[in-house]
Each structure stands twice: as C-alpha cells, then as structure tokens.
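ARCHIVE CARD
Drawer: 12
Card no.: 0347
Subject: one protein chain, sequence and derived structure
Cross-reference: see card 0346
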Amino acid sequence: MTPDQATDLVRSSMPLCDTLDIRAVAAAPAEVRLEIDHAPGLCTAGGVLHGGVVMALADSAGATCAYLNLPEGASGTTTLESKTNFLGAVRDGTATAVATPLHVGGSTIVIETLVTDAAARPVAKVTQTQMVLRPR
C-alpha cells in the first residue's frame, strides 16, 4: 500500500484523522506509521501539542494496525482498553506514531504504539487491546 493509499484508508475510516490532517507514511500488518504536524490550533498553553491529539494519533495508528491484522471472517475492530504513558512533549515539527502488533488472536488484538517527536525522542507509549468484531 502506498502512503497515499494508506492515508486515504486512515482518513476515510476515521474522519477525525482528516480533521487533524493525520497522514500515513506506511501501513502494513507488521507496522503502521502515522504522522501529524505541530500546529498552534492543536496545542495547550505553552505551545505543547495537546495530549488528546497525541492520543488520537496513537489510537489511529493502533486501530489501523489492528484492522490490517484482522483474522479471516472478521468485520472490524473496536478498542476495549487503551493505556498511555506520556514521556515528553511535542513543541514543534512532526509527531510520528509507530504501531506494531504484540498479539493477534481470534477475539483480541493487542497493539503497542510509540509516539516520537521530530528529534525521535519518545513522547508517549500506548498499549491498546482491540476486540475483533464478527458479522451477526
């Protein structure tokens, strides 16, 4: 999947990604890489990228990774649990989220996502459990 195709997938399946101008660099079952640019309208006091924006970036990367790892016959995925540890702040440049699967099962998929700033310093570590949805 090209970055443009991956960005289209992310933005069409999660319209918030379009609103936040999140883009995909890569999307494959083994790794999903999404980016967002620092912008004043996405910040808290002091020009720091809002934690909710960082979490939205990480959640979107994790959800995309889970979707790309769905077992045969599954219809989708939804987040059951998400744990975020904030480790730093994004004050400028681009934040990058890299999501990789820790467990891919028939009923749950566990994804780990690392968010870094433009200097590749860790900003957040997110672990999420996605439930595998099946048609009724």
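Annotation on reverse: The chain has one domain: 3-133. Residues 3-133 form a domain with the Thiol Ester Dehydrase; Chain A fold (CATH 3.10.129.10).
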